[in-house]
Amino acid sequence: MADVSAPADLGTPANPDSSSFQRRDAHYRDLLDTLATRQAKVAKGGGDRRIERQHKRGKLTARERIARLLDDPDDFTEVGQFAGYEMYEDEGGCPSGGTVMGLGHVSGRLSLVVANDATVKAGAWFPITAKKNLRAQEIALENHVPIIYLVDSAGVYLPMQDEIFPDKEHFGRIFRNNAILSSKGIPQIAAIMGSCVAGGAYLPIMSDEALIVDGTGSVFLAGPFLVKAAIGEEVEADELGGATTHTEISGVADYKCESDEEALDTIRDIMSHMGPEHRFGFTRDEPEAPAFDAEEIYGLVPDSGQQPYDMREVLARIVDAESWTEYKKGYGRTLLTGYARIDGWNVGIVANQRSVVRNKTNHESKGEIQVGGVIYADAADKAARFIMNCNQKQIPLVFFQDVTGFMVGKRAEHGGIIKDGAKMVNAMSNSTVPKFTVVTGNSYGAGNYAMCGRAYDPRLICAWPTAKIAVMGGTQAAKVLHQIQVRKLEKQGKELSKEEEQEMLARIEDRYEEQTTPYYAAARLWVDEIIDPVDTRAWLSRGINMADLNPNLQTFNPGVIQT
């Protein structure tokens, strides 16, 4: 922690003795306790009984395999931990989408590790499993980070095959991506540590190098039962596609290993023989701790998404001390734009300002009051210019989202809010420098888009426990949906009492509120991970380090900019 008595160019000392700070701090710590409890449950995968069964078969679990593979098991940045959370309940659930993945160092090289969790439906692929694996390959493609597959899967979950198999972003895209990754020279290593069946057999074999564990690993296009049904041939799984078959007869696999441990050690050996690491060279200075303790964020962020706060105070607990240079500080003040360093990395920051501000319109007036968290025309104009500057300078962009949307109404429309909003979206969409997004609070409507939501290809996007993602705020949405339902009933000749209307509104609000939580978003991979605000610096630093592995940067061309 930095000396809080030292001068700072951003933020002010917090008052931990104030009642509001303590109330907010307690509320945030409750949210973090919930997060930790849910993380622990998800990390169990299919549960203790299935973990024990995995061990009895002489196999490590997905998380144990990753821990053994990494240089430092604690240095693992998980991605997609809450994929599938509270989805597929009728099917018994699919914790973490049946796959554990994340970033860590293997023999000194930052790598993306993807491990099937065989304790979850024998590692079968649900729709969210395919989406998560495609996300892993997208990360590898964008950032040129080596990808290691630890394969242990029964293949497509047949009851849901129509949602997994045939479409563009379904199972088959995995193998197309294997080929594209190979063509770009991005290393792929696969270890067959359990079942690997049917179309899934192509994933490890389309990798650069494939390992197989004797006795537990098997890979074939059709298993013994299907072979008998198709051609009447009877054959045991090991003879059909075991380690001896594929390393001594077919030549399909490259390395035969006697155990999970040997396979993981062999991967480490292979990684130690990689060629030179090519980087783009994004600017990084010596890291400096923030001017203030990051844990103070808990007491600064309100316990309600409607309350104002100063985003500068939050940024002061994330960016390196004395590194902030604000761009157009007095203009478009509902967005903060500025240059800073995060763990030494030089970045451009675009952040929603949640304080109510007064925007100067001429020299005589006191100015127009603008609501925090709303993007006004001047703020959008400023952000577009700043994003273009960051592309010109070739520095990564970081977006901090707490946005309720763009300003509406006659004055905003007459002032050209659509034009200025389009300018910002254009510049952000065509930006070629790496983009990263942190959803700290609200993420509503077009604000989600303009502030680099999932649809705009951030290299990584994370959410704090206070995040809420939806087309509009819960209260407004619930009232609109309630009015639609009431009018529908009125057309059918039905009238509701005030009590019935209140009950209906409460049900709608509860359902909508559930759909705006960060867990709902993370379950569907709208965000990559839910993180503790204290971990934001490390998360962003790792992301930029990963992005730096891609030595290529496309030319920035925003096309037609609305002026």
UniProtKB/TrEMBL annotation:
Instruction: Mark the transmembrane ranges.
Output: none
Q: Name one GO biological process term.
A: L-leucine catabolic process
**Chain ranges of the CoA carboxyltransferase N-terminal domain:** 27-286
Which stretches does the entry tag as region Disordered?
Answer: 1-25
Task: List residues of the CoA carboxyltransferase C-terminal domain.
Answer: 286-546
Recorded GO molecular functions are: methylcrotonoyl-CoA carboxylase activity
Q: Which cellular component terms (GO) are annotated to the entry?
A: methylcrotonoyl-CoA carboxylase complex
Origin, by domain of life?
A: Bacteria
Official protein name in the record: Methylcrotonoyl-CoA carboxylase
Q: Which organism is it from?
A: Longimonas halophila
Upper lineage is: Bacteria, Pseudomonadati, Rhodothermota, Rhodothermia, Rhodothermales
